[in-house]
Amino acid sequence: MNPEQLGKLVKAHFDAHAPRYGLEGRGVTVEYRFYGGSLQKRHFTISEGAAAYHLKLADAPRRLAGLRKWHNLRDILHERYRAPRILDWIDIPDTGYGGLLCEHIPGHPADLGASPYVTREIADLVSQLHADGELSAMLLPLTPEGTCADYFNGVWARRLRRDLADIEAQPPDFVASETLEWMKAEALAVERAVAGMEAFSPRASSPVHGDLWPGNILAADDGRIRIVDWDDIALGDPALEFAVLLEPIMEMNPKASLADLLRREPDAAFRQRFETCLRAQKLYAPIEAAAEYIEAEALEDRADAVRAERRAQYRETQRAYRRRYGAG
Question: Which element (helix H / strand E) includes 287?
């Protein structure tokens, strides 16, 4: 189901149940928002007059399970970690789509590379999350626990394999066959490095956000920093989490040290995992861009603009990876 069709059904739901959400139902608007990433997640802004909400939907079982997990943990995440307030769980009849109605937070993605104060604030908050024993106990029955290698494979290895398979099945015209083979070889090399590294053998038992890229860190119009999209929360590896968070900052500020950004001196095992996860993330960037180029076909009138953006991202991020790790 494309976003426009789903949007019409979402509007029908809010027109029919307007009073439940403090709406009159006379001028409800539903606007689809594309933030990148998998099209299995659909975002809508619901508004009428001054009232506005954010609706995040999914239909894939894994994505629905993640949204349910966030719903179960909504109070502690809102109170301690600046997550949006969850207002309701909504199912869209006869579609398989369900998800979370959240408060709408006016703002924009935080510019972490240009804002050292915000970087320190977020690093402290994320470190608090990783050490939250109460949240860890709440997550234990909701998420599988394994080693740091298991967590890496569940995040990066799974994404790399999935998107490389999509590219191989429907290669964009700007991805040469030899480049695809090179990316597959690089992904395999990273997986093998993780499998043979003692640093990845400890248990991954810390609460992690699971998708802490800068787009999920908002500088709200009220002056507060907020963290959104908690449906990948799990017991995981803080080194991987910080690799995702700090990579764009280190790209903009090559002289920044990991110890300064973390506001503590990490041990050798953490550093090893961090550097490996950083490499996986940099490799995934062009692969993800090419995969999203393929997925953009479903966006209909937005497809051309998204495809042009993803093509440019592919070229830029592939060059960045080759500069740092070699051309293979």
Answer: helix 268-295
pLDDT lower than 70: segments of the chain: 36-40, 328
pLDDT reported for residue 251: 82
Give Cα separations from 32 to 10, 41, 47, 178, 303 (angstroms): 10, 11, 12, 37, 14
Q: Which long-range contacts (CB under 8 A, 24 or more apart) does 66-75 make?
A: 66/231, 66/232, 66/233, 67/98, 67/99, 67/100, 67/231, 69/142, 69/143, 69/231, 69/233, 70/100, 70/230, 70/231, 70/233, 71/100, 72/138, 72/142, 73/135, 73/138, 73/139, 73/142, 73/230, 73/233
Indicate the residue type of 269.
A
Record the tokens describing residue 280, joined without a space: 């996986």
What's the 3-state SS for 47-81?
Answer: EECCEEEEEEEECCHHHHHHHHHHHHCHHHHHHHH
Residue type, 188: L
Closest listed residue to residue 280, CA positions, set 129, 167, 161: 161
Quick one: what percent of the chain has pLDDT higher than 70?
98
One-letter amino acid of 38: S
Report yes or no: 164 and 187 within 8 Å, Cβ to Cβ: yes
Radius of gyration of the chain (CA): 20
Are 231 and 89 contacting, i.e. CB atoms less than 8 angstroms apart?
no
The tokens for 177 are: 């066959």
Is 246 within 8 Å of 258 (Cβ atoms)? yes
Q: Are 184 and 164 in contact (CB under 8 A)?
A: yes
The H or E element containing residue 38 is: none
Measured distance CA(234)–CA(142) in Å, rounded: 8
Q: C-alpha distances in angstroms, 58 versus 85, 91, 120?
A: 19, 10, 33
Distance CA 99, CA 102 (A): 10
pTM of the entire predicted model: 0.92
Cα–Cα distance, 319 to 189 (Å, whole number): 19
